[in-house]
Amino acid sequence: MIPPIANNFVAGETPDSALSHVEGLNDDGVAGILNLLGEHYEDPANATEDTEEYIQLARMIADRDADACVSVKPSQLGIDISGEVFEENLGRIVDAADCRVWVDMEDHTTTDTTLDAYEKYTRQTDGNMGLCVQANLKRTGEDLEQLADLPGKVRLVKGAYDEPAEIAHKDKDTVDAVYKDLLEYAFREFDGGIGVGSHDPEMISYARELHEEYGTPYEVQMLMGVRESAQTELAAEGIPVYQYIPYGSKWFSYFYRRVRERKENLAFAARAVLTG
């Protein structure tokens, strides 16, 4: 059973509980991005099991006519086992889903394999895919140049993984500046739409300015349990808002990872509970 503090950030342990949460959000004009918790599998059977649940989840989204899509982690689908296992499992989900399939980005060692699989399937689905990219990685500018020629959406986040300094920006002010530069490039060069994956009011305000300048469609994506009042306010203004919604029995690992990657996440989560 999920304790009360975790209930603010995890939508239960079953697909049904997650979709019930989505339906409540939809009433407030907010859509959902559903993520089954699980990662870094070394046993192919675990990756297959989660692949099957994503396939079932996609069918449930369609059956309940929910305004929602799914987001998968490469290590959950077997990228730690092999790139081929990951690509095969991702392909099964993409084939079964009518909704958009987002692919999260994990640590830098998986970036190239993730990009290759995304390119393959976003072309096959005529862009019914989305990919997360991380502003803190020094390579991301070049990656965006490659992605600009592909159909599909990109979610730009600041990045949570503690990457080596030789390949990643470490200073917060630098990451913020790079995030804005990359956001401007994406609004200028992308046609398929931009996912602004940030809780930072400055970045959300800047995205609004870029939309007014370039006309590129965009959406704001925030985590469940973080600045939820801002999510509904933005949706009421007519800005598409998606809440990233984790669910599943592996909720403890989700919190442990977030606190381990960035200790300030713990304080941020506590503030979110207190302030809504």
Automatic annotation (TrEMBL):
<dbReference type="InterPro" id="IPR002872">
    <property type="entry name" value="Proline_DH_dom"/>
</dbReference>
<dbReference type="GO" id="GO:0004657">
    <property type="term" value="F:proline dehydrogenase activity"/>
</dbReference>
<dbReference type="InterPro" id="IPR008219">
    <property type="entry name" value="PRODH_bac_arc"/>
</dbReference>
<comment type="pathway">
    <text>Amino-acid degradation; L-proline degradation into L-glutamate; L-glutamate from L-proline: step 1/2.</text>
</comment>
<dbReference type="Pfam" id="PF01619">
    <property type="entry name" value="Pro_dh"/>
</dbReference>
<keyword id="KW-0642">Proline metabolism</keyword>
<dbReference type="GO" id="GO:0000166">
    <property type="term" value="F:nucleotide binding"/>
</dbReference>
<keyword id="KW-0274">FAD</keyword>
<dbReference type="InterPro" id="IPR029041">
    <property type="entry name" value="FAD-linked_oxidoreductase-like"/>
</dbReference>
<keyword id="KW-0285">Flavoprotein</keyword>
<dbReference type="InterPro" id="IPR015659">
    <property type="entry name" value="Proline_oxidase"/>
</dbReference>
<dbReference type="GO" id="GO:0010133">
    <property type="term" value="P:L-proline catabolic process to L-glutamate"/>
</dbReference>
<feature type="domain" description="Proline dehydrogenase">
    <location>
        <begin position="19"/>
        <end position="269"/>
    </location>
</feature>
<keyword id="KW-0560">Oxidoreductase</keyword>
<protein>
    <recommendedName>
        <fullName>proline dehydrogenase</fullName>
        <ecNumber>1.5.5.2</ecNumber>
    </recommendedName>
</protein>
<keyword id="KW-0547">Nucleotide-binding</keyword>
